[in-house]
Write a structure and sequence with these properties.
The chain is α+β, with helices and mostly antiparallel strands. It has 13 helices and 21 strands. The protein has helices at 15-27, 44-52, 63-66, 74-83, 86-95, 115-128, 173-182, 239-247, 249-254, 270-283, 299-308, 322-333, 389-413; strands spanning 7-11, 32-36, 57-58, 100-102, 107-110, 132-134, 141-145, 150-154, 159-162, 164-167, 186-191, 194-198, 210-218, 224-231, 235-237, 258-264, 335-344, 351-355, 360-361, 366-367, 373-375. The strands form six sheets. The protein has a six-stranded antiparallel β-barrel. α4 (74-83) packs across α13. The longest helix is centred in the last third of the chain and has 25 residues, at 389-413. It is elongated, with a radius of gyration of 26 Å. It starts with 6 loop residues before the first strand and ends with a helix. The model has no long low-confidence stretch (mean pLDDT 96).
Amino acid sequence: MTNKKSKIIVIGGGAAGFFAAIRLAESLPEADVTILERGRNVLEKVRISGGGRCNVTHACWAPTELIQHYPRGERELLSPFHRFAAGNTAEWFEQRGVKLKIEEDGRMFPTSDDSQTIVDCLWDSATAAGVKILTSVRADELFFDENLNCWKILSEEKIFLADKVIIATGSNPRIWEMLSNLGHTIVPPVPSLFTFNIKDARIRDLPGISVPEAVVKVQGTKLEATGPLLITHWGLSGPAILRLSAWGARALADLQYRFDITVNWLHQQPEAVQAQLNDFKTEHPKKLVFVNPLFGLPQRLWRSFVAAAGIAEEKKWADVSKKEQQALVGQLCAGTFAVSGKSTFKEEFVTAGGVDLKEVNFKTFESRLFPGLYFAGEVLNIDAITGGFNFQAAWTGGWIAAEAIANQSVSEHS
């Protein structure tokens, strides 16, 4: 483009898009920075995230530990996280008057417990820096015009010209199709964070009951996860299930979400459980099995497993047969459950898939195929487990892409 004023367009008015636009406008006050958002409102995912509280990031300070929460993008994000990670995110918001707090599980929220605090911070920072925010503008086509030496973005009503473009549209099939038409490889998207639908008498009437540490394995695969497990109206959820759904996103899609899982509700070896049952039987032979839960299990869950093991309600420990006791150990340590589908986890809409990571330079988040085209957030084939990690990837990508454009612009005009 012939005019000296840099024009930078960010497609996508979400977390990554706003973060990139703010960094750009603050670093290049002379530049024309514009956000194009297809919806009527911006920052909608930020607004609804974390049950309306916004899980901004996670208190995981070491990049080598942080990357372990990304089933896709682990290797690529290591270097970026050395430049901008959770601590930088917390500092960024606190410098703008938004204090964050750390909850017991490491998730970080604004102390207001209100996502609007984050939305307002991003909006105010963007407008104060001079970012133009255009809503209800859908990018239909993107290409580089050799004659004008600039990028062209075609929408229904207008053509936008830009020196640089950042794509920060999240999981958007239309944008992926547009990028595919341009020449990028798109890894087909599949759901990532989801819960398991299970119809089983053992858990049917127990929604809301949880255990603190279970081991869940997908039979016939190497997929395994450990963590808290929650019974829901639809089946099973909780961190153990969500980790399985994230790391097994593609394998479980291939199985059409119909497979069997094995659950160890105690995270203990069967031999150790058997030994503890023997000890209890010896010490308390006259106690009823049904009404005396062991291993810290909720009473209703314990009763369900006792019944499933074929032990009658009126039976005392002294009368439990070896076969019945082994059946109980099996229920506790190796219960098989048939999964017959999936459900979206709360308000989290996360997919595995997007722009192939081999086609992106992670020093700058710039396309390796098309100079001047950058990516940030879930438009890339990067996703994480729940807990603020997807937002952290968005902040990091947006910040580094903006830094790269700003540094290049300064060098070009110096």
